[in-house]
Amino acid sequence: MKSFFKYWHCVFFTFASFTIILAQENLLQNPEFDAGMESWIPVQIEPSVSLFEVDDSSVLSGENSLQVYVVDGGPLEYSVQVYQSVPIQDDHTYSITFLAYYEADDELQIKIDWEEDGGNWTRYFFKGITLNEETERYGPYTFTSRYEDSDANFKLFLGQLMDTVVYLDSIVINDITNTNVASYPVTLPDRYQLAQNYPNPFNPTTVIPYTLSKSGQVTLDILNIRGKRICSLVHGVQTAGNYQIHWNSSDDTGNRVTNGIYFYTLSVSGTHGFFKKTHKMVLMK
Known about the structure:
By secondary structure, the chain is mostly beta strands. Helices cover 6% and strands 48% of the residues. Strand 16 and strand 17 (273-283) form a beta hairpin.
């Protein structure tokens, strides 16, 4: 039953991500932060204190993710923000999605805002979103614009948070005017990939992301520093897609393992051949 639950969790995540991937051009530049902070402008308004960093070790999608460490989010929702210029058109319908993960004891809320650049800061679209403790793709949030503004800005607000780390990635804005979202074909990954777990170091739970470009027999094992397998998180056939697996530092018998260095290995076999990749992770006290 334990193994089946983990496998079902993966299948559901993949299915959900497929239903919201749109075969449309993303209106945002550098949406996965693979080019660092290019096109994005970070802002902190005193007395808020925060740190924006492109992180290649806690990757939600692609090669990098944006890590925002909010030490003190200040008194206003927009005291900490990151944005870029995105024109908006009247009578056009838009869809917004993004990946997010956070490190905090309590649930938190961030805001997405599409607004006028300066002046009255007229809001064309605004929504508060409560994040879950697990990595998740949020959205799609759809709306029809009643404004025309070639200088509009799309913003993510992280103000009013305290001592919190938020990871953002794969931010997508699609213009879905005169289209049927349900008819879009599924966009499948074009390669196998095992990403670095996050957070790392961790205690007691971490997330292991990987991508399958084709279906196959999949095994995801946790090994101790001697190379001995201590648990198998996945063992079975999986279809192509993006997966996020949680490990709670337990072995196959359900007992917590000791702190130290561990390895996780993804193996995929099928008619396409064989893929195997291993990464190191650290379980801290």
